[in-house]
Amino acid sequence: MSTERKDFLRRIVEEDLKSGKYSEVVTRFPPEPNGYPHIGHAKAITINFGIARDFGGRCHLRMDDTNPTTEDPVYVEAIKDAVRWLRFQWDGPVRYTSDYFQRLYEYAVELIKMGKAYVDSLSEEEIREYRGTVTTPGKRSVYAQRSVEENLDLFERMRKGEFAEGEHVLRAKIDMASPNMKMRDPLLYRIRHARHYRTGDKWAVYPMYDFAHCLSDYIEGVTHSFCTLEFENNRELYDWILETLKVSPPRPHQYEFARLNLSYTVMSKRKLLELVEKGVVNGWDDPRMPTIAGYRRRGYTPESILAFCDQIGIAKANSLVDVAQLEFCIRDDLNKKVPRVMCVLDPLKVTIDNYDEEESQELEAPYYPHDVPKEGSRKLPFSREIYIDRKDFSENPPKGYYRLTPDQPVRLRYAYIIRCKEVIRDEKGEVAEIVAEYYPDSKSGSDTSGIKVKSAIHWVEANSARRVELRLYDRLFKTEEPKGIEDINPDSLKIVKDALIEPAVIAEKPDERFQFEREGYFYADPVDYSDDAPVFNRIVTLKDSWAKKQKTTKSKPHPKPKTEKKPAQKMQRPSDEAASMGEEEKKLFDYYTRKLGLRSEMASTLARDDVLSSFFKEVLKHHNEPENIAKLVINEVARELKNSQDGRIGFTPAQIAELAEMIESGLISNKIAKQVFEEMAKSEENPRAIVEKRGLVQIADPEILLPIIDEVIASNPGNVKKYKEGNERLFGFFVGQVLKATEGKANPKVVNDLVSSRLEK
RNA sequence: UGGGGUGUCGCCAAGUGGUAAGGCAACUGGUUUUGGUCCAGUCAUUCGGGGGUUCGAGUCCCUCCACCCCAUCCA
Q1: Sign of CA dihedral A350, A355, A357, A363
Q2: Are residues A655 and A733 in the same domain?
Q3: Domain termination site, one of A527, A549, A571
Q4: How large is the C-alpha radius of gyration of chain A?
Q5: Res A680: pLDDT
Q6: Could you say which of A10, A28, A32, A288 is catalytic?
Q7: A572 found inside a domain
Q8: What pLDDT is recorded for position A565?
């Protein structure tokens, strides 16, 4: 990985590798085998395997199988399939948390011996009560006082299966009053008399996620443990277990990213399961399902899913990705790959009455358009009777209609231009057939007719066409953020039983995915397709700007009202803040405003913060410039204070006073002061010493500055032009360049004046 | 309500004090025997709101607001 922009996880890995924290990156994809993986898993897979690949590391596939009641081998197969289908390869064998049960048990025993874990015999309800709530602390169980020996004995007997489920649990002894609920003596083990699909009846106790996960990561030598946002609160416990057990470094660390949400889709296992169980869809691999198996059956390519995962990025903001982004990815991929063929979804017979009944011919048609660099073609039978799509003919065409009408000829793609002569109706008055004539000299590729048509439509020859079943899939839900079954799109599947397709598709099988020209991308259903009864799934439609235009002209009587800029919300006056101050704070506030003459914003900020306030007063003793000192303390000192975890700061009030003097005297600029600040916080050196050592004295001499400015102006003629054309934001660019050239030492005020006068010329 | 997180275009998302990237969507126009593709172009005077610091703030400080997660013997 070189210099291109990286997501925050890759930056962390890069940093850790550079600093030598780890010599190699090891990640893992750790699903619980209790359901079919979906596109959200694809994101996690791409992240874990992708990062390992990008940094020359390894990625493990681990089944997090600590709950025997929910897991099943069919899911481990589905997960393995999904990873392989996405073209990733896990390092070594598939791993299982259940393989570590013995070691995990030993770690638990160790915790007990350290007095850091105990067997609790409270009931489930009691445990819940004792835990407290998010706002009230919990209280510890009386059983927490059990001796190490008793705990050891009990835990051993739990393991052997001497107790009923729920009778005892093993808990970590941490803090029942922790603000983090996950730290209130979390459960480590519970009794389960269930058969585990791998370990059978060997164990009667099973580790909980929090205990198993960090240790499994550690056992496997994982360095970076990526998971989704909802585990943020679990990180403290993850670290606590590894730290308390004093496992030898290198230790794994957990980082969280936002899980994928897709519009018009549900992603939770529970809701997906409901769809399957209630028969809303036909199983986990129903082409409408967001499962990997579903997309695969629908006809999505692994490349398109990967491209999608790439495009959506990795971040920490909860987001809802537009499904249109996914649709773009599959269209984009298939456009470059698949053969174009003709299939008529809603056949309308056309008899070409000037074409001899006895005659027929074969037309040569390429499988790929001019812009797809692939070779291949097939023969297209042509005769007196053909079928076109019903929507490609209109007796009363709307404005802008390019297709066949009584007055408008059209080209049959790869064949001739035809003209409608007569419309034949059935007893209900509907168009049943069209009688047309063709222009013999308009043959595709050797057209000498001189007739101009607005469009070319697809068609099939009546005798040779094959009847096929088409499954037209649409979004499963009708709302952007569906809650559940109540939001199902009733038209998510339309089955067309008697579409007609050109014979070569069935006979030659040039591919399994096709573009049915002007309709969409289709995939020969891997389960139900047979040569006798071909079935195609619609993967996605083509973009259709005609349909879009129709829709907008039909349903857009009013132009969309431009949303007004929302008016500024209620202003907050500093005096409002003063109102919320306590007695002491108010006194301080008054003192700062009246005696020291500080502005109220500053005064209130100081008055509300003990540490800042006393620091401020200390600095004042060394240098009595309340306003300047207050600014420094409020902005700079406050930052350093926030950034230091332990509340310690690497500088003294006297040093801040010194810094203030240097700024006031013009020795250094504010910009440099910031730099000095950071240096001070780190090195604990005196500001003056830092300035001298690093040569940070401000440059205000035009004699020095002017040549630099001219240089900057000379080397950015484009920006000079833009600036002169009115892009005043660019002013900062020039100043910035000069500052950069002087390593920040130029006096910005002087530079501003100078740049301004130079640019005027 | 305690704690942990997150707010940049309709949807994603870069951005680490010096010109608000990019993709999707949308919208022009061109090419086209697919109303597809492709090509050219348009689309954030502003970053949840308000103050402050600074020559200069999406980035630093203060404050308010909104949303998500945590009280399964699930993961």
Answers
A1: negative
A2: no
A3: A549
A4: 36
A5: 87
A6: A32
A7: no
A8: 39
Residue A549's pLDDT is 87
A543 in helix, strand or coil?
coil
Q: Work out the number of other CB atoms within 10 angstroms of the CB of residue A222.
A: 27
Give this prediction's pTM.
0.94
Nucleotides of B under 7 A from a protein CB: 1-8, 10-27, 33-38, 45-46, 49-56, 60-64, 67-75
Amino acid A643 CA to nucleotide B49 C1' distance, rounded Å: 25
Question: Using one digit for the tens of pLDDT, what is the confidence trace for A662-686?
Answer: 999 999 999 999 989 888 888 888 9
Contact between A344 and A386 (Cβ < 8 Å):
no
% residues pLDDT > 90 (chain A): 86
CATH number where A140 lies = 3.90.800.10
Asked if A236 and A190 sit in the same domain, the reply is no
**Which is catalytic among the residues A6, A80, A182, A269?**
A269
User: Domain of A741: which CATH number?
Assistant: 1.10.10.410
> Does A738 map to a domain?
yes
| A165 and A191 co-located in one domain | yes
Q: Is A626 helix (H, G, I), strand (E, B) or coil?
A: helix
More confident residue, A170 or A642: A170
Residue A556 has pLDDT above 70, yes or no: no
Residues A398 and A501 in one domain: no
- Checking each nucleotide's C1' against the CA of A566, the nearest proves to be B49
- Predicted local distance difference test score (pLDDT) of residue A711: 92
Residue A306: both structure tokens together:
């990967």
Q: Of these residues, A21, A259, A674, A758, which one is catalytic?
A: A259
Residues A369 and A337: their CA atoms lie apart, in Å, by 11
Catalytic site residue A639?
no
Please confirm, yes or no, whether A259 is among the known catalytic residues.
yes
> Catalytic: A403?
no
Q: Are residues A53 and A129 in the same domain?
A: no
Cβ(A43)–Cβ(A7) below 8 Å = no
| Range of the structural domain that residue A708 is part of | 702-759
| Separation between Cα atoms, residue A177 and residue A155, nearest integer Å | 25
CA dist A84 and A73 (Å) reads: 17
Q: Quick one: A279 and A140 in the same domain?
A: no
Domain count, chain A: 6
pLDDT, one tens digit per residue, over A53-112 is 999 999 999 999 999 999 999 999 999 999 999 999 999 999 999 999 999 999 999 999
Residues A51 and A121 in one domain: no
Q: Same domain for A357 and A447?
A: yes
Is A595 part of a structural domain of the chain?
Answer: no
- 3-class secondary structure, A233: helix
ipTM of the complex: 0.97
The predicted pLDDT at position A632 comes to 94
Which nucleotide C1' is nearest A137 CA? Answer: B2
> Is A3's pLDDT higher than 80?
no
